[in-house]
Amino acid sequence: MPVYNTAPFLREAIDSILNQTLTDFELILIDDASTDESASILHAYSDERIRIIQNEKNLGLAVSLNKATRVSKGKFIARMDGDDVSLAHRLELQASQLQKLPHHSVVCSTCILIDEQGNKIGKWKDDSQYLTAKKIRAKLPSNNCIVHPSIIMRRELLLEYFYDPEQSAAEDYDLWLRMAAEGVMFHKFEEPLVLHRIRKQSFTRERQHNVFFKLFRIKIIFLFHGLIKGQANGFMAKTLLYAMIDLIKGAAKEIKKGIKR
């Protein structure tokens, strides 16, 4: 669980993991040089399952996650955010499912969206619409449909890929693309196992950017790195097609904004 300035929601997030029906785990908390009360909240816990990593300076999400992956000891790695909530049976259900699947598998779930006050505000359309491994694989070249803090995978699998710090705008989506391009399959629980918090500040900042240009950049970097490694397959060709569509849509959006001014 990476933590950066999530003090108002942090106790609820941590408690939702400590109160899981599956109890045999380590909870690695990475404080990425928070400037609020997050560090004090972390150190107030005395549960022996908790391990705290304190970054001396802000390293960003991708670097922090890679750091935690390297020091982790568990067979499986589950993701969680410092402002979300995991339902009590999440880890038990997901770990049981993962044990039945091949090595190159990721298990995730749908989510329920909540606001800053914890009120339920609906579902993420793409998350709840693309449920099967086949549909998820078909959707990924176009857009992300996997809730990052809902995933669990074998530690060895994540050590094969890691997060790419260059993709700081969407390190999760880039990881799914790289995995899917090499045949990793994503298995999703239709039952929501995570309450995913939408924070007003983050949502407002996201809307200020041209999302199509963002998607284009993510896909082009993914494709560039893949080609350097000598990869070329149908999944990548489909991703390139959607990258070009994103570029056209992004340009059209900018032209429309210019005309309105």
In short:
Helix content is 47%, strand content 18%.
Fraction of residues in helices?
40-55%
Q: Which topology of the largest domain does CATH recognise? A: Spore Coat Polysaccharide Biosynthesis Protein SpsA, Chain A
Overall mean pLDDT score?
A: 95
- Helices and strands, in order, run as EHEHEHEEHEEHHEHHEHHH
What's the name of the CATH homologous superfamily of the largest domain? Spore Coat Polysaccharide Biosynthesis Protein SpsA, Chain A
Strand content: 15-25%
Alpha-carbon distance between the termini?
Answer: 43 Å
SS-based class: alpha/beta
The dominant shape is globular
Any idea how many domains?
A: 2
> Which spans of ≥5 residues are poorly predicted at pLDDT below 50?
none
What does this protein look like?
Strands 4, 5, 6, 7, 8 and 9 form a 6-stranded mixed β-sheet that branches. The model has no long low-confidence stretch (mean pLDDT 95). Helix 8 (171-181) crosses helix 10 (211-228) and helix 10 packs antiparallel against helix 11 (234-260). The chain is an alpha/beta fold and 261 residues long. The protein has 2 domains: 2-207, Alpha-Beta Complex (Spore Coat Polysaccharide Biosynthesis Protein SpsA, Chain A), CATH 3.90.550.10; 211-260, no CATH class. It contains 11 helices and 9 strands. The relative contact order is 0.13. The longest helix is centred in the last third of the chain and has 27 residues, at 234-260. The chain has helices spanning 7-18, 38-43, 61-71, 90-99, 125-129, 133-139, 155-161, 171-181, 200-207, 211-228, 234-260, and strands spanning 2-3, 27-31, 50-54, 76-78, 85-86, 105-114, 120-122, 152-154, 185-197.
